[in-house]
Amino acid sequence: MTRQLSSPRFFNPLMLWIDVALKTQEMLLSSGSVIQIRTERMARAGLTPNEVDLAEFQLMSHEKLAAVSESSVAMANQLHTTQFALVNRAVKHWLGSGVALFSLATSTTPTQALSHAEAFNSASTRSAEALSQLSSASARIVQRGLKPIHAKATSNARRLAKIESA
After folding, report:
1. Per-residue pLDDT, 7
2. Domain-by-domain residue ranges, the chain?
3. Which of 45, 47, 101, 127 has its CA 20 to 30 A from that of 163?
4. In Å, what is the CA distance from 151 to each residue of 18, 28, 65, 67, 147?
5. 52, 130 in Cβ contact below 8 A?
């Protein structure tokens, strides 16, 4: 049985990476506005910040440390659960494709060539599937790592925009 490359799972990594790109863009835009608002606030406070300013400046440091810590743990957990097994599978199938290609190249009869061509096609499809899964897993690792930083940046942008407009 041959597998079709038109299966939706082969396009799943693309959608995952598009999601990563969109979340990254949103995070960067939010971070830019947060940096601008906080920098202006620091400049206005000067050398004599009030208690509200000090609390905001302290919150800024704590939030960054918490988000980086949460992001690191999420990425490590995702990496541990999926990536190592998928890399092993991808290498195994890639090597299997190489063996099948070599067998095809050394075929001596048309029947043998047909049999080796089918084996090569099957091995190549398994290799492509494994690489697709590896790409999906990589995107999920990035998504898990981006999630806490994205959440904090976007919530800060909303919160600080409300404070500035009041």
Report:
1. 46
2. 60-166
3. 47
4. 18, 12, 14, 9, 6
5. no
